[in-house]
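Journal club prep, notes for RB
We'll compare a predicted complex against what the paper describes. Inputs for the magnesium ion case:
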Amino acid sequence: GAKAIGKNNYHYYTKSMRDAALKRMTLIADLRHAIDNDEFYIVYQPIINLHDQSITKAEALIRWRHPTRGLVGPDDFIPVAEETGLIIDISDWVFERVCRDVCLWRKTLCPTLQISINTSPTHYTDPERCITLWLEKMLINRTPPQAVLLEITESLLMDANKSISTKLFQFRQAGVDIALDDFGTGYSSISYLKRYPTDFLKIDKSFVHSMTEVSNDKVLCEAIIVMAKKLGIKVVAEGIETQEQYHILQSMGCDYGQGYLFAKPLEHQAFNALLEQQKAT
Ligand code: C2E
Ligand code: MG
Ligand code: MG
Ligand code: MG
């Protein structure tokens, strides 16, 4: 009868919930040891200047080499890291590693290299270990402000408070560029451009992909580029995979491109080799 079915559903429900909870707890426990066990590494995805094809920018993207599960992508652990606060230590690690790498590359292979770092809301709201520490670290380690760029998302600005804009303003005043990531996927993006200091705007890959199929998206893409130009903001198109997307964006006056068509995110050695090759030619 109805009672029995209800009971079965209940059992089924609790089991899957228990499995999910267990999986999550294991992930959190593993994440806690990942830094000490040296399981994280950074890949660098080149950002191409669409006006002269030069590469003086790249985005740092974290990777987790899990001892038993293999490679775990950031989408599978960054959200959990954010919920648990582990993101603070992870991002500090990313920041330090990027500063070290970019300083060396600027000295040896590419004096104007700039590496962008993804940041999380917690960084701007945690009163104890706030992002202001990064500015101090940059001063101590003599990392030029032009060497790094901070990527922020609209979700960060959505629950924006005064402390976030104050911190962003501090960074900008120190000479660190700010980019608005995944532009076009959130809400009321345009008002953020007015309220927050932004040097770069990254058009989300979903936009770039639909551009060749949905003519409205193409129009919107072009409008975003024109608007950004008038506001003095540089545009980066994310997720360029085809020659067609590349040529359309180039003809629209888009400044930079990032995507598999040019290069996948590269491990340290491979990115180093690419900079060497560029320097030689
Ligand atoms: P994102 O910042 O928007 O990064 C771009 C993502 O698009 C990367 O995924 C990149 O590998 C992928 N991508 C690049 N070119 C193409 C393309 O042509 N086609 C397609 N389909 N995808 C492309 P990834 O590395 O898996 O990172 C996912 C997200 O995880 C990032 O999105 C970012 O929000 C977050 N993330 C990555 N590294 C970090 C980090 O160090 N700290 C924080 N807080 N978040 C990070
Ligand atoms: Mg990003
Ligand atoms: Mg993005
Ligand atoms: Mg993102």
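Talking point for the session: The pocket of C2E (ligand 1) is lined by residues 45, 61-62, 73-75, 78, 91, 94, 118-120, 151, 181-182, 205, 238-241, 258-260, 265 (CB under 6 Å).
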